[in-house]
Design brief:
Order of helices and strands: HHEEHEHEHEHEHEEEEHEEEEHHEE
Distance between the termini: 23 Å
Structural class: alpha/beta
Number of domains: 1
Largest sheet: 8 strands, mixed
CATH architecture: 3-Layer(aba) Sandwich
Strand content: 15-25%
Length: 450
């Protein structure tokens, strides 16, 4: 168990950084002894930069002058870059993306949490600075400490036991540096959704972040079984792979069949995935497929144009998915089930300093992708307590519609792709009343559905 701070600290941070007061920020105090003209000028410059970016995030204009870069081949995370066409992360000295208080306000979440359930996060590779970076994120927003010493944070290998050492050079170190943005995003968003929950970070080999094959999907399946055996209440996977007969049947499929454990997976960042197969493992019947939105503020949310959706003809439905939903996919499993903010244009704040290869830490960045929405939804399940009888998304489909913000505008199809699949409903690509592919049942309206 770990000590829980007074929740008032968190909510003072929430008031300081909100969707409504977009340009407000919390500044470190400067003592008279240390307040030199140079230091004051540097602080003022950093504050001005952070305020500008913060305003652009909240107005949905960040990508007018900045670009995005996919973190790794199999990751569903996109980091905002310094300029269009650049791969260098936009780095700031202060947090600029959406923080926990912003998401609380947007999704009508409670102002305190008491759950100490375990959220398992599965990532490729090892982030050598994860614990210290997580501490920076949580301290910035007034969240309780979550360390290995106080029992809140556990770092584990995908087969069980201690996490291996980070790579020290070559392709491995370079890949782990890139993927560290994904790993930090995952634990930061889980923390935002449930500040008092425990976090179990599980590492699969770094190559799984770069390769799309049966070895990679098998490693993730093993990691899910390890997480369930360790007592995780919720498991998040922010990676997507090509579905094969091996990954949609047999032992791999069985590892994801864990009644009573909420297993979430990103639906991908490539928009509509087609009418036959969609991103694995979000296409499995016992997995909650998490799509993405563009969040311009409470009550102002649309389907993110790159959020994944599609149909998986290997299965007739996700667990509990109504016939009216599968009919939109020609009587096949339909993705997504639920969603939250994923657009990097309205991205979240992430702290990542791990740079063993380049020597150029990113520090505070703005990140999007359905990699942001999956761990956030996983944290909400852990925060609320797992509903009785949960197995896949079945309890979400049984929840009242008032537990969701129904997203009725936006789409994720390029060049009217859905029209190329006459057996599918336009709802697979276009937001509208009720279920739709890009956002599923909608985004959270409180914790009632979880």
């Amino acid at each position: 168990m770990f000590p829980t701070r007074a929740t008032a600290t968190r909510w003072s941070a929430r008031l300081a950084i909100t969707v409504v007061a977009a340009a407000t920020c919390v500044l470190p105090s400067v003592t008279a002894a240390s307040a030199t003209p140079g230091a004051e000028a540097a602080t003022a410059s950093a504050t001005a930069q952070a305020n500008q970016i913060r305003q652009e995030v909240r107005s949905g204009t960040l990508l007018r002058t900045h670009g995005v870069h996919k973190v790794c081949a199999a990751c569903d995370a996109e980091v905002v870059t310094t300029a269009k066409g650049s791969t260098r992360p936009l780095s700031t000295a202060q947090a600029s993306g959406y923080g926990p208080g912003d998401l609380d306000s947007a999704y009508n979440l409670p102002t305190s949490s008491t759950s100490t359930a375990t959220i398992a996060i599965i990532d490729a590779g090892v982030d050598g600075n994860l614990e210290s970076d997580l501490d920076t994120y949580r301290s910035n927003y007034g969240l309780p400490e979550c360390t290995s010493d106080n029992g809140c944070l556990t770092l584990e290998n995908y087969t069980g036991g201690a996490q291996p050492a980070p790579q020290t050079g070559g392709d491995g170190a370079s890949a782990e540096e890139d993927i560290a943005v994904e790993t930090s995003l995952d634990v930061d968003l889980a923390s935002a959704a449930c500040p008092t929950c425990h976090i179990l970070e599980i590492s699969v080999p770094w190559e799984d972040g770069e390769n799309d094959n049966d070895t990679s999907t098998g490693d993730f399946s093993t990691a899910v079984a390890t997480a369930v055996a360790a007592g995780a209440s919720s498991v998040s996977i922010s990676y997507g792979y090509t579905a094969t007969s091996n990954s949609t049947s047999g032992a791999d499929l069985a590892d994801f069949d864990a009644p009573g454990v909420a297993i979430e997976a990103s639906t991908g960042d490539s928009g509509f995935n087609g009418g036959t197969h969609t991103s694995w493992p979000s296409d499995l019947p016992t997995v909650i497929g998490v799509g993405g939105t563009t969040l311009n503020g409470p009550g102002d949310e649309t389907a993110w144009s790159d959020g994944g959706s599609g149909c998986e003809t290997d299965f007739s439905a996700a667990n509990g998915q109504p016939a009216a939903v599968t009919a939109d996919c020609g009587n096949a499993l339909a993705v997504a089930d639920v969603a939250s903010d994923a657009d990097p244009n309205t991205g979240v704040a992430v702290y990542d300093s791990y740079a063993p290869s380049s020597g150029q830490p990113a520090d505070w960045t703005v990140v999007g992708g359905t990699s942001a929405s999956s761990p956030f939804i996983a944290g909400l399940f852990a925060n609320a307590g797992i509903p009785a009888g949960l197995n896949g998304p079945n309890t979400l489909y049984a929840a009242p519609s008032s537990d969701f913000n129904n997203i009725t505008s936006g789409n994720n199809e390029a060049n009217d792709q859905c029209a190329n699949y006459p057996a599918l409903s336009p709802a697979v690509c276009n937001a509208g009343p009720g279920w739709n592919g890009p956002t599923g049942l909608g985004t959270p309206n409180g914790l009632g559905a979880f």
